[in-house]
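Record 1 of the preview.
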Amino acid sequence: MERIGVLELDGMEFRAYHGCLEREKVAGNDFVVDFRGELDMEAAAESDRLEDAVNYALIYEVVAEEMAKPSDLLENVAGRIVKALESRFPEFVSFSVRVSKKRPPVNGIVQWSRITLYHR
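->
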């Protein structure tokens, strides 16, 4: 029997240098990345063994590696994270990555700008 479950890493925080404006590239900004993935969890649910589960610390490492590479666009950041996760974790049936930038530079008050990309 297949037991599809959801693995989430919510609220991964990073200081990064993504943005089109020079001040964003120099001063940086605060970002939050959320991951939500679906996969068969039957083996881990039955065995209680770490080797039968996805190591979410490795997911974090992949996200952190990509967040450390500056990009002009959040779409590019999210796209690189999705591509890296696709190749490292083929066991996911589907997953999403949401990248949020705190207080984006606009002419007004905005708490977050966000991009969400899906892999299916």
